[in-house]
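User: Hello, can you help with two protein structures?

Assistant: Certainly.
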Amino acid sequence: MPRTGTGHLERLPSGSYRVNVYSGIDPLTGRQLRHRQTVKTEEQARIVLGRLLEQAASGQRPSSDVKVSEVFDRYMEVAELEPSTRETYEGYIRRTILPALGSMELRKVRGPVLDTFYARVRRCGDLTCTGRPFTEHSRFPALKVEAGGRQPAWQQVAGTIREAISSGRLAPGEQLLSVRELSVRHGLPVVTLQSAMNVLASEGLIEVRQGRRSVVCGDPDEAAPSRRVRPPDADHDCVLAGCEPHRCRPMSAATIRQVHSIL
């Protein structure tokens, strides 16, 4: 095992010299930490070697290319959090922090980057929003009821929505139109739609929220299709599906403070 503060010189094919000093193990990733620098002459290399050895001996860490996503993976493995707090943290990390910052090297996440990030979510909590108008496409299926069919109308409706959820067409976290909105768009009785929604809720497929739109159950999938992209279905009808112009919804100050505390 090399010890902290050991180093060596390496002659490169170009004739230059690379200085390489071991500086310990990164506690987050388990990777070896090394100070490295390339210079033209052996004399310069020996001077640099002495300086880097001093830095290693003083505990100064070299720049690391560890990504923000790697740090959070490691952090959540060891963090001692109450179950509800852990669930909250995981939600913010998955939905907000990683999509915006996850692929960045941790050492690059500094003041200007965070200022831009916070300005972005103050404008709109939807990270796909660029400030330009776009349509939020819904993948809600057309609800067609076969008159005189073997199943009652509410079962046919529930079956259509159930299939859309199980196939991934309706992604976890996607909001559904209210039964009254669906009634107007699809020409079906409210009672039929209400019965279908109650069955889907009892099966754990959707969550019915008082005073708000129902949502598809499950954690939002980062790989889910963007609502910017029009579904490829030839029979997709934006009016029936409930596609709407995007409206910016600024992230609340309290939520931003929570995200900031996690960061």
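That covers the first. Now for the second protein you mentioned:
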Amino acid sequence: MPPSVCAASLAHNRLLALLLSIARERLLPYLEAVPLLVGNELYQVGQKIRYVYFPTHGLVSLVHVVGQGEAQVATVGCEGVIGLAALMDCEHARIHPIVQIAGSAYRLPSSVLKAELYQNSELQRVFLRYFHTLLMQIAQIALCNRYHSIEQQLCRCLLLSTQHSFQQPLMLTQEQIAKLLGVRREGVTLAAGRLQQLSVIRYHRGCIEILDRAKLERLACECYGTLKNKAPQEGAL
């Protein structure tokens, strides 16, 4: 096993654990542990995707940029992989992955995984199921952004973020949250202020501490309940 790979942490990414149960000996030599630092851009739009990333801790936002605006269309944590486009003969990035919550990941050359997929139907099924799950997440977030209030969206964002982080408080500024949700900062300020008045969160200079998670879940829309269960299960094979 390569010295940079910790056997115990491989299973922390559920999709990677499924892959290694099928093709462990062929994939393991190419895995490399890398840190995920807040604000890191794993690749930029138009850049060639040389690696796929399997987060073991932390959270990565998939951000779509249109003109002068941008918004989060999905998130990837320990349930998934970043860089799917490279496996589908689209080698250049169309989505901008940015680390939202610090953590760690294993990266794998996209060419290695692509070659393995071509010859392994079990791996193909695993990735197709995950791709479907990711599409459903994108659709759910699009509906949430269209029909639910900024306060509900903020609740959903905070709940999903803390689901992937052991950090307390969360280090997110109102400007960052506004960009993730694709809304004006003033709307986030009002929503965060109301949640603080209700003693649901404590917010100060980019630090958000959740004081009452149960109440935060009640204030969130139904999208949170759908999205929190989006991870592939062991029965995916």
